Structures are given as C-alpha cells and as structure tokens.
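Sodium-dependent bicarbonate transport family permease: structure tokens wanted.
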Amino acid sequence: MEFILDFLTRFATQLQSPTLGFLIGGAVLAALGSRLEVPDAIYKFIVFMLLMKIGLKGGMKIREADLGDMLLPALFAVLIGVIIVLLGRYTLAILPKIRTEEGIATAGLFGAVSGSTLAAAMAVMDAEGLTYEAWAPALYPFMDIPALVLAIVMANVYLTKRKGDAGTRVKIWPIVTDSLRGSALSALLLGIALGLLTRPDFVYDSFYEPLFRGLLSVLMLVMGMEAYARVNELRKVAHWYAVYGAVAPLVHGLIAFGLGYIAHVTTGFSPGGVVLLSVLAASSSDISGPPTLRAGIPSANPSAYIGASTALGTPVAIAIGIPLFIGLAQVVFASA
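Answer:
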C-alpha cells in the first residue's frame, strides 16, 4: 500500500510540470475557440531546433561513450519497435470495423517515435534531476525505422495477398531510405553526426541549449491545440481507435520499462535511460511517420492513424506516460 501511495504522490507532482501545462493550455485554448495560430513553418523550425539539440548532445556523448554499453539498449529498442507493430497487427487490425491496412498503419505510427515527446521527457527529467546516458536519445532511430518498415511491409503483403498477386514482392530498401529522409529523423541523425564528428560544444552551449525550454513550451502549446483539433477526425472512424490511442502508449511504455530494467540489471543502464526508453516506446510519430506511412500505405485512411496518434496517443504519452514512468522509476529503483 505504501508503494502505491508513494507512486501516486510522485505521479501527481509530475503532472504539475510546466511542459505538460503548456500542452494542456493549448488544448484549452482550442476548446474555447481561440484563433491563436502558430505558422506551420515556425512549428517545423522549432522541431528542427529541438531535434538538432538532442542529436548534437547525443553525438558528443557517443564520442565519449563505451559503445558496448549501447548495444543491449539498442537491440531492445529494435525489438520494442517490432513488438509494438506485431501487437497492433494482431489486436487492433483484427477488430470489427477496422480495415486491416489501417490498423497496421496505426500500429506502425505508434511503434515509431515522436521527437517532441522525447524532448518533453528530457525537459521534465532534467527539472527533476533524473540523469540518463547522454546517448540514450540516440536510441530513437533504432525503434523508429524498424517499426515503420515492418508496418509498411506487413500492410503491403496483406494487400498483395488480398488482390491475389502472391508473386509480387514488397521492396524494403525504398521504405528504409524514405524513413531516413523524413524531416525529424534527418535532423536528429544530422545532429548526432555533427556531434560525433565535429566539435560543436560552443554553438551548442551558446545557442541550442539556452533556447531549448522556450522552444519546447511553444511546441507543447501547438501540440495541445492540434490534439484538440484532431478529436473531430477521430470521431469519423471506429471507436476502437480511441481505445487503442488511450491504452497503447501506456502498454508499450510498460513493455519498454520491463526490457529497460533487464538492461539495467545486466549492463547498468541507468534509471533515467529506462525512463527515456519507455517514453520512446509510449510515443507515436507526429512528424516523420505520417508522410512515410501515407506514401507506403496509400490506401489507409490518414484520419484513422493520425487521429488516433495526435488526438489521443501523444497527449496520453506526454501528460500521463512521462510522469507515470518517472514516478515508476523513482519507486522501483529506490527500492532496488
């Protein structure tokens, strides 16, 4: 009982984070009919800045890290992306009134990663003093790419079999290259490469780091407004998407927390790293994933997978998932 009370107290404290406050504030503004708008170009610039900052720091720390320490968490990140897609394929995609390819696309989007959710988690963790390996954000592509590739391949295999074209093969490499060219993943990988191969310490300390929290607050405001706007799209498709969008992020995050704990026991992966791995799993791609899936599974209705992700998945991952996994880590590792 004491364990539960301690966890609930920590969870309630996390909900008061200013990062989450901006998300909720954006949703409230949209619900009240506010005409406040942030131009799309500014939104994309903010996302680029945040992911460059994360990538630069990760690259600088990877340069100093023992790559052997990254191996098991990276393998687990790949495994988690695959598990999430397979779970969605054999749960959501087989439910009544769910078109199989749309269910698979939704699972792919939830298996992929949200850079904004990752940035929000890092800001909250830094405020809480919860440390993590600086290379942990670099686990992003290890989860993101396998999830998107697997979802697109599975959906196309299903559609090919349904049409009776059993001899047609799905080409995997173009899917991988499209994923790597996505704006979010490109920015993150560029930051990692620059941090790893150059010496960007001065520009990082003087430019990217000071702007991080302010830009993140604007991003959370935009995402709050976007989440409320997407609710109407979610109503147009089967209600199972709403159930999936609310439940899946927490289930995925808990799976990652369990695997992260195994990495902690076997390799010393930090509690903060376990939390970040859980948040990566709980998040759903909001930038690179949708256009990749739209191109890879053109017959799937974007209202289904984007509505489930933006209207419910992302708010659940940020407002509930981040404080949940931080609180869980504080309790579990304090008693370990």
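The chain has a mean pLDDT of 84. The CA atoms of residues 19 and 41 lie 22 Å apart.

Cheers.
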